[in-house]
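Blinded run. Sample ID left blank on purpose so nobody reads anything into the name before looking at the predicted structure. Input follows.
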Amino acid sequence: MRKFWLLPIKLSMLLVLTTATGNAAALPEDPLNSVMWENMAQRFFPGEVVIDQRVVVLSPHEAEDQMQVPVTVDATQLENVVEIVALADLNPIPHILTVKPLQAQAFVGFRVKLEQSTPIRVGVLTSDGVWHVNGVIVNAAGGGCSAPASAHGTSNWYKTLGQARGLARRDGTDAARLSLRMRHPMDTGLAPGIPVFYMNKLLVKSADGVDLADVELFEPISENPTLTLKPLVSNEAEDLLVYARDTEGNEFEFALEVPAMADN
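Blinded prediction complete.
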């Protein structure tokens, strides 16, 4: 009986050790020195990973408000971008958002809640299957993810749910800069007595129904989500249609007009 049980246990240990060593060896050294680097890479960046300065991640070194930390991601130096994934390594919920720039520039701006000081890490997947990764460290006082949204300080916050403000303007010859803000508490489920409730989907379409940018949002996105995207557009004036949905099935939509390219 001893020989029967010892053999599979040894084989199992060998397989685990081999797998762990192989994954670790395949990863480049983390310039941010995060204890979560290997875990984040295995969970969110399957396949080949390279550290790439062409993925520009901008955020303040010190967070003045841990509930509203601005982040800008510019990966327009890369070609054939398929997906952009943003993470906060040390948040209780690390996944911030995923953007598919279907017919848009590889660019996104957003605001995030931080529970503590953390690396903010961005992986950009190109069509060859390679993840191009870069990031910054943001120092934060903490508590951004577990504090209740300010909306819960009023009794009728739900009456403004989904109300939107936005602006679309030209950004060069072939893209628009779309900035928008929507009213939503973006509850993480970590504040006592407040269940999870957040906007989890946003889609930008052309007036004729072509998908331009597909955004999946997660709990760490700040209350009243603020997003900046750069969808591709023609030289003519046109409308961009924005569709959004939250975890309770509420749906919202509105349109923003992009002005025509000005004559030189």
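Unblinding after everyone has recorded impressions. Helices lie at 2-26, 37-44.
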